[in-house]
């Protein structure tokens, strides 16, 4: 009888042990599932863009960019791939080692790079839809932001680089403030500065506003140089660029002229070059030829160098 009771007790304890083990295993499984769920949830985030909500990696590791290479480098983010024309930007040549060229938006190359995020300034829906088939795509169309501050903050927010963006903005503002102080001792506050350019392909002549073309943002927004009255009324804050006829150029010419592709004036103007030479700024040697490789864009690195170059050119005059 005693032996029988003992065996029943042993079997009962064994059953309890088995049930407890199963319960622990179940709890462990639940904990593992919970942990995995948390990891999964934190692996992505939703950000708001002009095209709607975008689900993207919380911490992207393999970024391909089409248009924002200097901005990413300033934020301390080195993408794995970028377009060839972006890689040819003269101001970043010391920072691009190891970045793969995607040519002119080669989809095949981008696929091979296996990006987890694409950042582009394209606005063409066809291009964006092709990108989205490869990876989540953050689209910030060119000139869709008001200035470099908005661009840097958008990227900083998306990439968890807010502090880096604000640090750059603070440093950039200081650079611009120091440059304006230097110019205050050099130029008359009433002097006007026109921004113009020629284009060989269509033999056209252009004027520029304070947008992202040909140094307009650096000259008018950050250095706060005064544009000619007609240019200020029609262009500043309204148009980034406009083609004009040769006949109306004197209406837009200022006391000083910054000219893009200035070495091509004779080739482009031909018989009309006499009109160019009749402008007061030209006759008084107040024309500054801009380096097209430096002044073609308005990325954060180019803007700083443009500001310094403008101050240097005016100081030499």
Overview in brief:
By secondary structure, the protein is of the alpha/beta class. The chain has helices at 2-43, 69-74, 84-87, 107-113, 125-132, 148-158, 162-184, 216-222, 229-234, 249-252, 265-269, 273-277, 280-283, 292-295, 300-316; strands at residues 44-49, 52-57, 63-66, 81-82, 100-101, 117-120, 137-139, 193-199, 204-208, 241-244, 256-260, 287-290.
What does this structure look like?
The chain is of the alpha/beta class and 317 residues long. The protein has two domains: 49-160, Nitrogenase molybdenum iron protein domain (Rossmann fold); 186-316, Rossmann fold, CATH 3.40.50.1980. It is 48% helix and 16% strand. The protein has 15 helices and twelve strands. The protein has helices spanning 2-43, 69-74, 84-87, 107-113, 125-132, 148-158, 162-184, 216-222, 229-234, 249-252, 265-269, 273-277, 280-283, 292-295, 300-316; strands at residues 44-49, 52-57, 63-66, 81-82, 100-101, 117-120, 137-139, 193-199, 204-208, 241-244, 256-260, 287-290. It has a five-stranded parallel sheet with strand order 5-4-3-6-7. The chain is globular and about 65 Å long. The model is unreliable at 1-40 (pLDDT under 50).
